[in-house]
Amino acid sequence: MSLYPEKGPVYSTSSGHISTTREELQRQIQTFWQFVGSNMRDPKWEWTAMKIDVLAPNAAVMTAAYRIPHLNPHGMPHVIGGAWTAAFVRRDGRWVIVQEHLSDTPTQ
Fold it and tell me: 11-104: what fold?
């Protein structure tokens, strides 16, 4: 949650859901952790592509692709991943995400 501003709106879309507040986003992250993240064994975060565009001295946007290979609770290899676009602004001397969109890689 340290990537997001302490106050003001935070727009986040993932899995067909839109959240507009820090509290909603935190609930989404906690739900992901409860049902997905906590079941990963030996996860390794891999960035497979990243593009950053500086829009102004206090604004930038990042679009990146990632994958997280891990073992499921039964010890079988599994990978989740997707693409993430995030708009960053500098507020109070630090860079924070004010808007983001995550899309999952389709399952094969």
Answer: Nuclear Transport Factor 2; Chain: A, (3.10.450)
